Amino acid sequence: MTNSHDQVKFAYWVPNVSGGLVISKIEQRTGWDIDYNRRLAQIAEQAGFDYALSQIRFTAGYGAEFQHEPVAFSHALLAATTKLKVIAALLPGPWNPAVAAKQIATISQLTEGRVAVNIVSGWFRGEFTAIGEPWLDHDERYRRSEEFIRALRGIWTQDNFTFRGDFYRFSDYTLKPKPAHPLPEIFQGGSSRAARDMAARVSDWYFTNGNSVAEIKKQIDDIRAKARANNHSVKIGVNAFAIARDTEAEARAVLDEIIVKADPEAVNAFGHEVKNAGKASPEGQGNWAQSSFEDLVQYNDGFKTNLIGTPEQIAERIVALKEVGVDLVLLGFLHFQEEVEYFGGRVIPLVRALEAKTGAHAEAAE
Ligand SMILES: Cc1cc2nc3c(=O)[nH]c(=O)nc-3n(C[C@H](O)[C@H](O)[C@H](O)COP(=O)(O)O)c2cc1C
User: Fold this and answer.
1) What are the pLDDT digits (tens) for 71-105?
2) How far is the CA of 336 from the centre of ligand 1 (A)?
3) Which helix (H) or strand (E) holds 116?
4) pTM of the entire structure?
5) N or C: at which end does the chain have fewer Cβ atoms within 10 angstroms?
6) Domains of the chain (ranges, CATH numbers)
7) With a 6 A CB cut-off, is 123 part of the ligand 1 pocket?
8) Ligand 1 neighbourhood includes 54 CB (under 6 angstroms)
């Protein structure tokens, strides 16, 4: 269970692919190059962000014409910062767990344990075809991801690691050196039944698309109940696209402009492609399964979380998410450097003040 005295953590999406975080022709003062990103990482750690999350894309699609590889890119951001933790995206299939475990262990050694990983299970079939990688059915992708996670954890924590899976096998394998401490945290993306069950068994963190507080609560209650039964504990991260402005009207006007300038062809093509995600699962639920055209304009349903308004409104909504068990808010922005700074200056202090008040109430009630 989340301790109400713990502070909610903040992460931002690393723009290591071009085109920003919304499928819209609105101006996005966001660069995908390394100079922009190094500066952004420094601004973010100064602003009170705990994590940066990189993205894995092998090909263009609906924007993202250029895509930097996330493990190498994450290391460059770690080298440019001192406190920030950087989460490198890994896609089982293209990535082999022995190579990934060794790469990440080395980066962990080089950065005093500031690297983490996000295991993504794949939704973009065209990308797999383009690189000649077999495409598995939805739940098979998660079975493979779970073996991938078990392999990473085993290699990082045990000598003479032996594992007999359907996708991966290890025999008496000892990695040296192992990662530095703390061990790299293992995040996962996805919210279908298979994704939740995997989180409740093996992941340190579960990342889900944006949604209302009520819908997020349903997911959390489900996962935490299952995790408890498995004697496992998992933390929860939720995506949101933040539009924080001095007035609510200004923030709403920005959202309207993003939607008005959305690229319908690209949004619809993306909507078609993501049917291979949750919708293709046996239960037909999961990420994007119920997304409208407007929701899809932000790649991970980030408008649904409604962190759009004044700093005060946003801070209250973040605390409401925390109240239902959210441990981390993952944020995208239109103009990353400018808005990460504004968010750190104007929103995070309000969240901390509200948390202190809630903490004080909780103590008084104890
Ligand atoms: C926060 C977050 C980050 C993700 N990052 C990536 C990524 O970098 N590359 C990718 O191909 N998929 C990414 N995904 C997609 C998921 O790994 C997964 O394939 C997708 O959400 C399918 O969800 P489902 O299990 O609900 O079907 C991400 C998902 C979330 C929620």
Assistant:
1) 999 999 999 999 999 999 999 999 999 999 999 99
2) 21
3) strand 115-119
4) 0.95
5) C
6) 4-365 (3.20.20.30)
7) yes
8) no
